[in-house]
Structures are given as C-alpha cells and as structure tokens.
C-alpha cells in the first residue's frame, strides 16, 4: 500500500464531505474492466490502452467505503486505470482515492500526484504479457474457408482434425470458423463451449447447417478473394483467443491485393500462425503469390494442390503447434547453400515443412542434408515429378509446391545440427523452410521480410 496524502478537505470521520453542514453522498463511478468489456471502453489514441489491450487481463478488486476507494490486482498482475480520455499505470500497488461529492469526481493517487478521474475504470494485466502472448498461450484454432469451395471437401478436411489430433490440441482451447468470399460479409464465429471437444462439435454443426451459399458467390472471376479483410476482422474481433492462434485457411480464389504491409504487421503483432491451403487452379483473383508472401513474412506456411484435402497434408499438423526453425530462402538456378544450424537443448521430434515455390512452375529439385555434432546424418530429396504426383501418404508427402516429412528429426538427440540445401530452379523463387514440434519453444522466432 502506498501512503495516501489526499486533501483532508474531502474526508471526515464518517467518510463523507460536509458542505454547509449538509452530508453529501459519494456516487463517483467505477467500472471493472477485463477482456469482455475492454473494447467498448476504448481510450482513443492512448498508447497505454493499446498496450494493455494486447495483454492477458482480468478484473481487479474494487473496495468502496463511502467516499474512499481501494483498487488492487494481486496474483502476478499489475493495475492500470483509465478514464474516458486518459490512463495511468499503478502497477503492483493498491490504488487509493476518494470521491469528491461536490463534483462527483475521483481524486486518485496515481503515484506522482493526485489526478481527477470522471470514471475510474480499472483493469489488471498479467505481468510479462505486455505487448505479446506466449507460444504456449491458450488460443483459437480458426477454420476459415472460401465460399467457392465444395462443402463436402471442407467437411472432409475438418473431419480429419478429429482423428487423434483433437486430443493433442492442448494449445488450442476454442474453435472459430469463418466462411469468406461471400457478397455479404459474414460474422466470424467463436464457439464458446465448455471444452474444446464441444467447441469442435458445435462448429461442425454450424458449418453443416450453413454449408456453402452459391447465391453469395462473387459473379466475376476478376473479383479478388476477401481473405485479407477476413483476417483483419478476426484480429479486430479482439477475442481473447486471437493472440498466438492458428489460422487454417482454405482458398480457391486469389486476392487482388499485392500491398500487404498492414496485415503483415497485425498478424505479427498478434502472433498468428497462418496455415494456407490453396486449391489450384484458382476460381478467380489475380495474385496467388500474395498469400505465399504473407506466409513468408509471418513464419507461416502455404501449400497448393489440385484438391484442397491434399493441400492440407503438407501443412504443419495440429500436433505440432510450435515452430522451432523458420527460414525464407531466396533461390535461383542451381546451387548449394549452408543453412543456419539448429541446436536442440533436449531430445525432441521435429517435422520438416518445405514450400518450394511461390507458384507451381519453377521448382526442379532439392536435397537437404544434415549432420549433428555426434556425426549422425540424414538427407531428403524431391524432384518436380514427385511434386506433380501429389497425394502420397507415406510420411514423405508432396504437393504442387510443398513437401513435408515426419521423419526429418524423429526423437532427435540434444545436439547441434549443421544443414545444407542443394536446389535447382528455372526461375528466381523463395523456399519456406519450417521445422515444427510438439515440444514448446521459450520465445517467438524473429520474422523475415
Ligand atoms: C455449444 O454451446 C452452444 C451455446 O451455448 C450450445 O447451443 C451448444 O449446444 C453447445 N454445443 C456442444 C456440442 O456442447
Ligand atoms: C449434416 O446434417 C445432415 C442433416 O441436414 C445430417 O444428416 C448429417 O449427419 C450432418 N453431418 C454431420 C457431419 O454432422
Ligand atoms: C536437379 O536438376 C538439375 C537440373 O535439371 C539436374 O542437373 C540435377 O542433376 C538434378 N539433381 C538431382 C539430385 O536430381
């Protein structure tokens, strides 16, 4: 508790102010804030508000005794207070203040003096969650799909998530769904059930009811997909489960946008892992490479295939929510390069996800080799013919532009692994090299442009 030195004028023995011998009532306003009402109490152009918005928050304790107020958090969180147009960090301390009944305004000891607040809105932010969430933060699994796809394919893809993996999803706590590429934009649905299993089933029932709406399809193949707008609305929903979530996005239509810096910034800030599955050829839109570039800049992944279900097979599995290695590699012609090594601090299994090209034309072949400090080595190769024949399910899955293998570093010993890449391309392109695991990472990987 901080020592409180309020103007004695306001307090009398019974806690009320006496003006002209008459007892006035203290009725200053307070409001407990948490994630559920933070957005509707926005403080415009306030950096402190923006900062608290991205934290894990809970409502504080507010004790009112006549005109006196005490507000505190406890439990490893710090107190922030806001008025309609300003705010202050109180931190670990208890906030003390009193209501001035003549104005019905708070006089609050904000640490460096007394300030007047019209409304005392108080919120607790969990320490260490400022400006970020953690790789292990409980988050949403967003299942988003274009209205251009066949519903039976989307249903099939969704049903694959239940086989076993749903029980390994500890990181994910809620399913959200979104149908995009519709003339009238549709709400993003968060299924707030008691368990992840119930949320999964509630989402399934909802999608089975709404299916696809052909009357809502865009009339022209020149109309671009509104997938970027959908992602922005997912983030702006401000749902607690957005930060550190995984967005699984099934597309058939390409966006028309090329300029993506704003959405890249948002996805990075909210640490959303993009898993993009694209059915090829597309049903419209001009720029398929936009999604690939978006995945590249956000440590995400992007896979093209003739069938959406096949595109899913080379995307990071739900059992592997943690990306331990993420590299975008610019390649052109034929060459060999040394890749940054990876050091495993403990035994773990890492699966390899490699998106070899932006479109579906340039890639010829690749070989990845690694050797660890104990001399253990292995290699993986793929050529163009193997990519064009997609759909194999033998632990070395390929698609038009991507490859994954569960056998990259299974039960790998703690060691440093030196890696190199041999490649052949007919044009300049970018490889997305990702290693994912169910072993958590301590902190997020840096992003690449
Ligand atoms: C999920 O919650 C909704 C809304 O409360 C409810 O109507 C639905 O029956 C629940 N579904 C499951 C599978 O529990
Ligand atoms: C979808 O709904 C139909 C009835 O409209 C039902 O027969 C079918 O079992 C449902 N499918 C799933 C996967 O829930
Ligand atoms: C990769 O492709 C290039 C060019 O077609 C060829 O010269 C090379 O032998 C191929 N490498 C492998 C390992 O297939």
UniProtKB/TrEMBL annotation:
It comes from the Eukaryota. PANTHER family: ANF_RECEPTOR DOMAIN-CONTAINING PROTEIN-RELATED, HYPOTHETICAL PROTEIN C.ELEGANS. Keywords: Signal. Transmembrane segments: none annotated. The keyword Manganese does not apply. Residues 1-15 form the signal peptide. Residues 328-437 form the DUF7154 domain. It holds the Pfam family DUF7154. This is DUF7154 domain-containing protein.
